[in-house]
Every structure is written in C-alpha cells, then in structure tokens.
Write a structure and sequence with these properties.
5 helices, 112 residues
Length: 112
C-alpha cells in the first residue's frame, strides 16, 4: 500500500511540475537528490563497516559476553516473553551494548 502512496505522490509532483512548466528544474532537483543519496550511502557504508568491525572484535574478545551477563537482569525485565538462551536475546543485548558504547550506526545491524 505504501508503494502506491509514494508512487502516486511522485506522479502528482511530476505532473504538477509539467503543468507549471518547471520540468527542467524538476530534473535538476531529481539529479541533485540522487547524487546526495549516493554520497550518503558511501558515507554510511564506511562508517558502518568501521563500527561493525569493532563490534566483531569486541564479540570475539569476549567483551560482549561479559557485558551481556551484566545486562541480563535488564533484558529479563524488558523482554520477559523471550525464553532464556534464545538467539534474539544475544542480538538485543548486542544492540543495547552498541548504543551504550555510543556506536551509533553500528547499533542498527545488531537491532535488525
């Protein structure tokens, strides 16, 4: 449903721009936005690669496991329906730890 909504808004915008005689301006804005999107993706890829790599090192060194043990009372309180030993607990704990360490974008893959 959302795809149709976005498609309709895009189509209405293009048609409105055509009726107003501003298609060249619309084209320039579309190309600038595409350039900004590519730049953002490249920036995010670099930053996320760095932080995800650091989180992987922390996981292999045992830092995540130690922090997870200390966070278990909080995780038990926040998510009582998830059984102990479930894989989701590990991902939730990793996400919380990434947020505590201030890793920003690195918390996103762990949360997903």
């Amino acid at each position: 449903m959302l795809n149709y909504l976005w498609g309709a808004m895009l189509l209405v915008g293009v048609v409105y721009g055509a009726f107003q005689g501003r298609l060249p301006e619309l084209t320039v804005v579309a190309l600038d936005s595409a350039k900004d999107a590519v730049s953002l993706c490249i920036t995010m890829t670099g930053v996320m690669s760095l932080w995800v790599g650091l989180m992987e090192i922390a996981q292999k060194s045992g830092m995540i496991r130690q922090a997870a043990r200390k966070l278990q009372p909080f995780i038990n309180f926040m998510f009582p329906g998830i059984p102990k030993g479930h894989k989701a607990r590990e991902y939730i704990t990793t996400n919380v730890i990434a947020n505590i360490f201030g890793l920003g974008w690195a918390a996103t893959p762990a949360g997903l």
